[in-house]
Amino acid sequence: MASISARRLRKELNEIHAEGCPCGIKLLNADNFETWFFSIEVLGESLYQGEVFKLMFRFDANYPISSPAVQFVVDQNIQAPIHPHVYSNGHICASILGTEWSPVLSVSAICVTLQSMLASSKAKERPVDNDRYVRTAPDNPKKTRFQYDDDTV
Amino acid sequence: MMNDSGSAKPPSPPRLRSANLPEIVDRPYTDPEPFLSGHPILPEDMDINDFSLAQLHEMNQKLLEESMGAEGPLISWPEDISALRDEYSNLPDFVAQINTLSNQGYRTIIRVKGDGDCFYRALAFIYLRQLICSASARSLDQLSATKTVLADAGFDEIAYDTPYDLVMGLVKSDSAGHELWNTFTDQSTSNYIVMYMRLLTSAHIHLNQDFFSGFYQNIASDSETSNPLAKFRRQFVEPLGKEADDIQVTALVQALKFHVKIAYLDGRSPNGQVNFHDFGLDAGDAPGNSEPPVLLYRPGHYDILQKDA
């Protein structure tokens, strides 16, 4: 019998195949129940017009009880968006991916939230502590303990 | 906005969505909400004073869990209550209360792991055991009614149908004895049952906001959000590992339409008296012909108490 996390992810995938992703989000790869990739862009007017980013989701066996590890992909072809909550290594500082994760959320819901985080951005800049964080950041953003205090998206 | 530029186009009807915004699938609960962001805590900057109360609470709970040891089962096999008495042998007020329980016929305790989920796990266990034992079509109706609560609260079906199917499968499998215990000791299955109970608790609080906002005032004082109850559900009800307070206990018992007694073992009664509190029995309800199941509460922890072995 498939694990419960796999059963849940299978359902999410079926829903994505049947209903499509939210606008501006495309499923790039979901060959297994461990790592999924999506492309994400902000439609309409925003600071990121015409830019396409790539999101990586990593799931463990406790998904959706535990949150997925979500980050922007950074490699020679693609960069993370320049945004006050996005580090240059692709890690994202957002409480819904940490202390405010709830099993009620889903992969699509996270995509939509991140899209709206980009859409409402007023300044294209990196977080102030970017360089310090990136120097010592763990591979998996879930291993970072974030202090959430800034309520302005 | 009105368009006065002289075009012959009739004004378009009011729309909820602006054409400039991304299409959002109609899911009331999962619509993007503003979330907190901040900065990572780097090891060289760690200082206990920088942590928020919620973070300290979380760290405290982790420590408590670790100190309880990872080796204990999620739910123990029934034990004689004398084992509990032995643990408190140097605390006479507790011993007196345990003796009172024992004299009232409560001879057995089923221990539930103290991992922050003990209330939900204990209640789920006695609730499902009762549903399975009564083995009637009504049991299945009762359980499927809980799914309606989740739907009414606007939860995305994908969030609850996997754990619901699991719980329903369990009730249909008609295995109340050893197999139910096995199910509850399997980490993954057991936690999904807990998750279902938590979602149900959250949904019930959402659907009865007026009633529960009264409970909530003391907890909400530090919150500045526009909907503190929603935030409370997100932070303290839905995630596993967050202990249940009175508000969650009341909500879940109501949502399950269940009746349970909770015995308070607190070492605070000089004559060994034990207070029992009824949950889920309204004044108008006729008490069932059988005695309701009993949870044993020690400050911060729930176990199951029973008369038979």
CATH superfamily of chain B: Peptidase C65 Otubain, subdomain 2
* Oligomer kind: heterodimer
Say what the CATH topology of chain A is. Answer: Ubiquitin Conjugating Enzyme
Mean pLDDT of chain A, to the nearest integer, reads 91
| CATH class assignment of chain B | Mainly Alpha
Could you give the count of β-strands of chain A? 5
Biggest protein-protein contact in the assembly? A-B, 58 and 50 residues
Order of helices and strands of chain A: HEEEEHHE
- CATH architecture title of chain B: Up-down Bundle
Number of helices of chain A: 3
| Strand line-up in the sheet with most strands of chain B | 2-3-7-6-4-5
- Taking the alpha carbons of the first and last residues of chain B, their distance comes to 73 Å
Number of domains of chain B: 1
Structural class of chain A: alpha+beta
Distance between the termini of chain A: 42 Å
What percent of residues of chain B adopt helix (DSSP H or I)?
A: 40-55%
Main sheet attributes: strand count, strand direction, barrel closure of chain B: 6 strands, mixed
Round the Cα radius of gyration of chain B to an integer and report it: 23 Å
Q: Provide mean pLDDT of chain B, rounded.
A: 81
Query: At the first level of CATH, what is the class of chain A?
Result: Alpha Beta
Task: Please provide a written account of the structure.
Helices cover 24% and strands 17% of the residues of chain A. Chain A has a four-stranded antiparallel beta sheet with strand order 1-2-3-4. The longest helix of chain A is centred in the first third of the chain and has 16 residues, at 4-19. By secondary structure, chain A is α+β, with helices and mostly antiparallel strands. Chain A has one domain (4-137): Ubiquitin Conjugating Enzyme (Roll), CATH 3.10.110.10. Chain B is α+β, with helices and mostly antiparallel strands. Chain B has a single domain, classed as Up-down Bundle (3 helical TM bundles of succinate and fumarate reductases). Chain B is built from eleven helices and seven strands. Chain B has a six-stranded mixed beta sheet with strand order 2-3-7-6-4-5. The longest helix of chain B is centred in the middle third of the chain and has 21 residues, at 187-207. Chain B is globular, with a radius of gyration of 23 Å. The chains are: A alpha+beta (153), B alpha+beta (309). The interface between A and B is large, with 58 and 50 residues. Strand 5 (146-150) of chain A pairs antiparallel with strand 1 (37-40) of chain B.
